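seq/struct pair 1
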Amino acid sequence: MFTLALVAQKGGVGKSTLAVHLATAGAESGKRVLVMDLDPQGSAMEWANRRGDKAPDVMAAHPATISKEIERARAEGYDLIVIDTAPHADHVALQAARASDLVLIPCRPATFEIAAISATLDLCKLANKQALVVVNAAPVRSRVVTEAIEAIQDKGGTVSPVVIHQRVAFQHCLIDGRTAAEFEPSGSAATEISELLAFVRTGKHVNRIASKPAAKNAEVV
């Protein structure tokens, strides 16, 4: 079983959207997947209520019992757990990071968002967990993406080679509990999520420290 925590000090970076998309992509690949929603706002839970009984499974979780819930999920045969946290690098986020195998840090390619990842990176060091920064909601075909990757690396962050771009499908699909792949199966949004999940699941992130090239799907001009 693999446990993935999405943690970010800054709100509005698309953490819950990324969490439910990665979880659903995992379920579509034949894995049994559970989303644990630690965010008091309950965005993942609201999405699940609109989705109905389709996979993945989603549950509200409490940081005090997260380790027990993970062990229970392991016993029940889950292959992947995705933990969605509140937008704060606090005790709850620390508990989620400690309980995970890998921490994903979504980050929009903007000044304030990049500045805020230092606290999250420090939290991951405190938890003694590897962190992978995902450039999220990036503009298509812009040098801003390359500049953001360089700035994140300058802060000591390891950046995913897969960039998630701002796509209309990500906005429209959530309204009725779908994902971008279900809204537009052959679209770029679906492809990017699949590529990110594949990169995380293959374990290539373990030895991948990019030397400041543009990410593989950065679409830079």
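seq/struct pair 2
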Amino acid sequence: MTAPLPLAHSCLILDACCVINTYASGRMEDILISISRSVTVATYVREEEAQAIYAANGSGAREPIDLNPVIERGLLRIVQIETAAEDANYLEFAVNLGDDGEAITGAIAAERNWAIGTDDGAAVKFFSRRCPKLQIVSSLELIKHWADNASVSSSELGLALQLVRVRGRYQPKARHPLFAWWQANYPK
């Protein structure tokens, strides 16, 4: 039995980098199951930003992201801006962030009191300052939670992290709170 991800909010909304990284791991469905909370993504992020990952063979070819299986299983819901307050937040956030996907994700989270899943350093700084009551969760926190709670073998975890690096083109910076964990679990 898995312990729920310690979220201070009833729902988690993912921005494009979290969608890409969890999908790239090859274990998105398992990761979403492990969260034990409602997980969403904005329509804009799904349709405009989280479009593709890189091929696992390192060729640089792109492969489309297909979220339909996790949506059909009810593990991921698609949401959009619905209120004037969300729209106003989006406009303010877009000016400050320069990215529509993160601005829409943040606007929805701020008005609905949801946690935000992002790996973007500028977004983390902005939302920490602008919306300090909202919890910010990284892709690595989601992957670590899955690994810790699903009795994932070290080889299985290593492969997932390797796929995140190759297919998602993501590697945490040395200042990331889970950098040492990444290094300890990344295949040598």
